## 1
Amino acid sequence: MRVVLFKINQLGDNIAFVPAVQALRERCPDWQITVLTTPNAAELYGGPLGPQEILTCAKPAFDKSYRRPWELARWLWTIRRRRPGACLIAFDQSNAAHAVAKFSGAAVRIGGNLGRIRVGRSLTEEIPLPQDASPVTWNWRMTGALARSFGRGAGWPDEPPPPDLRHLLTGSRPPSGARRRLVVHAGASRGMNQWPLERFASVAASLSRDFEVVWIEHGGTTGRAPPGTTAAPVDSLAGLAAWLAGADLFLGNNSGPMHLANALGCPGVAVTGPTAIGWDPYWHRDRWIALRHPDLYCAPCEKLTAELPGCMNTANPMACLGYWTTQRVDAACRRQLERADGRVP
């Protein structure tokens, strides 16, 4: 049987989806699984438990394909000609994904719906938002429901394991140094999740006096490495994973690289502003600190079920991120390292 899984979204969203794909592949080795995702996330789906086929499209192009009917028709033909028996449409997918799945010919169409879908009867079974409002949990339950629809769901675990990303670590890794290594990724795909770069640079410079600090250069962080740190250009997930796998601590925003570090088992500190709590590090929680404003009335303002148009705190815009001074973030990093040493509980 052919199964098509729709997950056209950012890096972090796909990391939250990989365990479900791997479990489905392991449990249903006779199925032909196609994953439709974005080019920057395709590397995640490699390895022996990856799907047999990966199709890619940039998220804006796919989501807006209804404005170019010939593009939407091309995707309809691409999926329909595979004759899927089932489709899984992740909760964060667009109307275009729901339309393609509906007219794919698949009799079983399972997924989530954030309430913005205008394609009627696109799903034959809708999986509700889980109590913990975590994308990882939601993806896992949707995929479990798909397996059960075909008698393959017996013993499906309640919680997903971390994704197996060893295929990203097959190349050479940076050599270990004499000092403990911290990896700083100061970027984020959304401006509202971005703690100021200059604050990241200040913390990195401070920590570099006592530790080896690696500054990941990608996009807007390129050329911003502060003195005393090691600039590390990366142009692939495998390159980033190599640095993270050997690190003693990760520091960054609540972002895709943060979720990659978490999935790989690297301890970390995430500077978190308006991001929904469901996006806090899911695995290895004892090794992570998600820095959130302790008592801000409006935080977190992002909800998993609604888009965030901008900061609603007109009196003190982005106070959730502004609360985190360089001194506080520096102290959190040092505390995490001491905790790993067993010097603090």
## 2
Amino acid sequence: MDQIQFWNRETQKLETERVYGDSAVKLVYQNPVGRLLTDWVFAKKPISQLYGWMQAHPMSAKKVEPFIKRFGIPMEDFEGAPFKSFNDFFVRKYKPGKRPFCTQPGDFSAPAEARYFAFDRLSRDSKLAVKGIELTPQGLLGSAKKAEPFEGGPGLLARLCPVDYHRYHYPDDGKTIDAYTIPGRFHSVNPIALEVQSDILVSNERRVAILETKNFGKVAYVEVGALFVGRIIQTHDESQSFSRGQEKGMFLFGASTVIILGEPGRWIPDADLLEQTKQGRESYVKIGTRVGRQKSNS
């Protein structure tokens, strides 16, 4: 894979992703020695924690301006400058009103600003039609019992890149009824890595929350750790109820993934996202916009 292409839902154009650290990802995942080193060294949690510490050091702030210029980050949309470190910049917030969430109760709002795959049905033998990626409810949630409510239900895979907004939000009103961490590795979630190693999303460390939502029933909200992601932080107190659009948490430095699983018959992803997925393409979606809808028979 030489280029990563995605469909920009807003512009309705096919675009090529500009990958931060592209050469390094190819070096470690496209040759046997690199993959071996990653398994035994780079994908270990202490390495990601160390790298995260480096990005939080004040010296890392000198990387911010070159990064903004290289990737054309529209800083007028964000608050918080000047930034104290690269991590401080990495978790920047949108200014109020820049990313409104859906107001119609039956609209499922995008929980992250990311590149999406969508599927109307996931089961214990599911593999994405794209690149054979393993993505089963049981694999993601860590047990058959916890996965049972979501077998045969809809799903969303939202892949965040280093250039993206790295806070993630609740798609609807509700409460958290279960939350836990599944230990694992810290491989890259870049499509280059996923093409080589299909089990990354079910073997990386994952933070799972089972939500009871107002309009969509139970929703499994999975945050996937990744190579050089310093930490996954829950910024919302999960003992408290939440509202649509409220911030749930954030990823410190690194690119990572949010995966949403739903109960069968409660909601379905939008048709254009499903069609792009069938064609093997991710769709770039702004946070808060509609990515699914409540089923009429729910």
## 3
Amino acid sequence: MKDAKTQTRIHAMTVDVEDYFHVSAFDGVISTDEWSGIEPRVGKNTHRLIDLFNEHGVKATFFTLGWVAKHCPDVVKRIVDEGHELASHGTNHRRNTTMTREQVFADIKESKDLLEQAAGKAIKGYRAPSFSVNTSNEWVYEILKELGFTYSSSTYPIEHDLYGVPEWPRFAYTRKEGIVEIPIPTMRNNDKNKGIGGGGYFRLYPYWLSKRRIEAYLRSNDQPYNFYFHPWEIDADQPRVQNAPFKSKLRHYVNLHVMEKKLTKLMQDYRWSSMEEVYADVLAGK
């Protein structure tokens, strides 16, 4: 039997707008100097996603690279024109943990300037590339406050080889810097946090299992759920990066051919909106 309460809640749909050659998994084999010689696919894929969202009455938050705003301004304009929330994902998908404080400031500021110029409106949200905020660089929140951001969704409280702060809060909270942090959702299992927020986990598992995990989260927590994925995840025809490590290729390419079908089921089974709407109360300090 369906829980009526969990079925009527509105959850946050989020998209990390980046191309397949931007991802951290391919850092070691595709340099930023090579990007200019690669045909972008992020524009076409993001337009496809917006079409899908329109078909199902979904509003979303698009955490978008400044690089995308520079090379695909029509995408940014459409995101805003069609009532979605535009937010920052940094400029060139460099992880904050690989940069100095000065470099992070410049990266986030440039992304904000590029996005606001393309959109014609202010943005308030930020998501660090590869959730690269942890105990080593909490000063990122001071930067966000200085630059006029309201919230961040930059942490995933799990154990992972590329990111993760499992000891940090699992639910939205206001930090001492005045920034609201909205973590990627997790479920507790054997005293450990398990990722259920989307991305590779969602592609890897059959849909029935992902839904069962989401339902368990909703029954256990009086909190909204937020889901994240990328435009390249619905692009099964994207070029293959042949010289990438096996683990990176496995993570990146698994089940691309079924992602759009799974995403459609997810949109049909739950109600979705943007971060700024779903978390309006906590963002307003209530």
